[in-house]
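Table S2 (continued). Query chain:
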Amino acid sequence: MPDVTGPYAPGTPCWIDLMVPDQQAALDFYRDLFGWQGEVGPPETGGYAVCTLRGKPVAGIMTAMSPDGGPTPPTVWTTYLATADVDATEQKVTKAGGKVMMPAMDVMTLGRMSVVSDPTGAVVGLWQARDFPGAGVVNEPGALIWNELDTSDTGAASAFLSAALGIKADPMEGADGYFALNVDGRTVGGMQGLDKLPEGTPPHWLTYFAVDDTDSTVDALVHARGNVIVPPFDMMAGRMAVVQDPQGGIFAVINATGPEAA
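Corresponding output:
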């Protein structure tokens, strides 16, 4: 079911958010593209906006701020993986060769978060839920449907995911060089090597959003001054495209005809 009513199992993508220079412009863009509702949040949360679809939380959008007067972080969608204990997971991350980019911190009574990177440099968030479990709707148009790790070393990434997060990577049947990321026997995401992507692409997690019509969504994005990185094409799971919002945030859209997971 698209609505999520229970807690996310550890290792499962449970939330996504966007850091962007112009928060209001991003709120307007994604409202028009996906039908989200959202507004700048209160000062005590740094203005963090929780966007909703059908009244349920679907993604966060926040203003990118430069830490300690340094360069402003790039515009990027971040995937968050559920964990029962952020602090313990951080220890597993470092033991498995990863790095802690942003140490564990409480987010009021909502939960506890951290940002880490794997040995190849792909950055991912960790979320220990308290009052806020994460996305309340997935796998329907306008919502998260898939999270994919694009990595320079699938072997190293697989070992890290298993040791640090209990995620098992298995070859996906019928998809050469593509791996299913499984938690307790359930597919929750995918992984592939960077050899399938343009030269110079760094390791990263890619967020996929479900749409009714990939081509018309891409047309609307272009009309709103977004960019097309990979034009719409047909693949085993449906028709997809990789695009960029007007401020540089990269994501994928897909009209899925195959198995869905998030």
